[in-house]
Amino acid sequence: MDVFLSCYEAMQRGELIHRRNRRDKEFHFQDWVGRRITETGFAWEVTKRNKYPDYIMTDHPEGYEVKGLETPGRELSFDCNSQLATGMHEGRSVYYVFGRYPKKPAADRFPVLDLVICHGDFLNAHRDYAHKNDSFRDFGSYGDIMVRDRKMYVAPTPYALADGLTSQCTLITPVEEALDGVDHLRQVGRLTRIDADRIAAKYSFDFRDNTLRTELTDNPTAGTVRDFIAYREAGDSAGDVVMKPARRLPRQLPLDETTDELSHP
Predict the structure, then answer these.
(1) Are 201 and 216 in contact (CB under 8 A)?
(2) Which residue, 124, 101, 96, is CA-closest to 113?
(3) Cα separation of 131 and 123, whole Å?
(4) How many CB atoms lie within 10 A of CB 147?
(5) Is the peptide bond before 72 cis (omega within 30 degrees of 0)?
(6) Cβ atoms 88, 95 nearer than 8 A
(7) In this structure, are residues 157 and 104 in contact, taking their beta carbons and an 8 Å threshold?
(8) Once rounded to an integer, what is the mean pLDDT over residues 209-232?
(9) 100, 67 in Cβ contact below 8 A?
(10) Which residues are CB-neighbours of 198 under 8 A, at least 6 positions away?
(11) Residue 3, helix vs strand vs coil
């Protein structure tokens, strides 16, 4: 809550993102969030770039992964480089900080247009998957080329899942999350996600015809209802946050099935 309020107050007083140079396309918003965490007075570990999550708190079992989004531009999904989006990592709750800012600002200082801090469970609530990259050889004409299987995950952002986030500053937490000093916040929505009936368990790639095939299996948590609360600062009069209608995403079916679509809440 303190980190969220620090971000909200900084936006209200016009604290700008500082881009060090034109090639700084990744870390300027991350640095902006780091300054907001520092302003709370809570300590965080100084780690190398690309550490997950980006900010690991030392006094609380919590971490923050920062995702900057240019606008206009891609805002409905984001790449998770070798780390599946999750609400728990190495015993710490993980919160994701999404911030939108101008794609082509006229100067090297520019505003945060809107911001969402959401618990990782809002993006993916499964926690038992262990990421691993692997490789194999025997490829190519001489059979001595190595192929790396380096998985990249693409997850929806809160902007893809809920309406009412644009031009606002919003906090999304699991309904069971206890927040100290919650009187500084105002509830603006109850958001629900439901675990899918079937999920991918295996995939394979055929080099002969460049086809990727997946195998689906029953989801052990199918039908589980997960509720989240959307908050704003107590004095913020902005409107409610509501879930968008379930998106319909194409899925790959076994060979004996016809092409279909599956709805994902």
Answers:
(1) yes
(2) 101
(3) 17
(4) 14
(5) yes
(6) no
(7) no
(8) 94
(9) no
(10) 216, 217, 218, 219, 222, 262
(11) helix
Given the DSSP bridges, would you call strands 261-264 and 247-250 parallel, antiparallel or unpaired? antiparallel
The gap from C-alpha 244 to its chain's centroid, in whole angstroms, comes to 17
Nearest to 125 by CA among 92, 85, 95, 159: 85
Q: How confident is the model at residue 262 (pLDDT cuts 50, 70, 90)?
A: very low
Q: How would you label 216-237 residue by residue, b for 16+ Cβ within 10 Å and e otherwise?
A: beebeeeeeebebbbbbbeeee
What does the alpha-carbon distance between residue 171 and residue 181 come to, in Å, rounded to a whole number? Answer: 14
| 189 and 252 Cβ atoms separated by less than 8 Å | no
Q: How far apart are the first and last CA of the chain?
A: 27
CB-CB contact of 241 with 190 (8 Å): no
Q: What is the C-alpha to C-alpha distance for residues 241 and 234, in angstroms, rounded to an integer?
A: 15
CA distance 8 to 28: 18
> What pTM was computed for the model?
0.87
